[in-house]
Amino acid sequence: MTSYLVAALYKFVELKDFENMKAPLHAFCEELGIRGSILLAKEGINGTVSGEEEAVKKLLAHLQSDPRLSDLSHKESWAKRIPFRRMRVRLKVEIVRMGVDGIDPNSKVGTYVPPEEWNKLISDPDTVVIDTRNDYETILGTFKGAVDPDTQNFQQFPEWVKNSKEVNGPNKSKKIAMFCTGGIRCEKASALMLEEGYEEVYHLQGGILNYLEKIPENESLWKGECFVFDDRVSVDHSLEAGWGHDLPEKTKDVLSEYMINQEKSRSS
To answer: Does the annotation count 186 as an active-site position?
Structure first.
């Protein structure tokens, strides 16, 4: 059976000409038969794409040929069918929308923690571990002991920080460790926390996907599956696609609404 390569990528880097990048990049992806979604903004690039292995590798090499993206990293997984229906390249104000002026990971960001050091950090009783993802994601799986902000979208995260008993208060020397799916949201969240005056801010490098790839399941502190933003719905610890099977009953309404909204977005 043919397997398709799925590559999740992002990089915060100033792209002053991001608007001019859209059409050529879309045409290049279409020529290679790649499907997925790429967001471009002045602050960088973010996307997940899928296709034949050789095609995806060509796209990654093409992106890295731009000196600004020469060190662009990505996470790989495999799927039995392409989990996207078409290719979209979109222009955005932010590659991950937080909606807070002045938060720029290109100038200020927390400490990256590789997967191999993550367990030790989050097992420290003095560390506040925060899942920066949304409710329809955390309900499928999370790290043991993580605080769930119970947000419906990432724009709600800054307000949660201001009101949360777990992180709010006069003592901003608490050790904060954050994570998300691929690393992009917790990277921006770490910039926010530093701007708010927190002194020790850490985030999981490459996100959950990188952790699942690098850490053996028998050593893992991850519980459940990881929601992904495509037709796979979730991946397990081996990064095998769930395709929506065996979902807990309480997640179905939330995920159904999400997928309906995704379909509306594809049709627009």
So the answer is: no
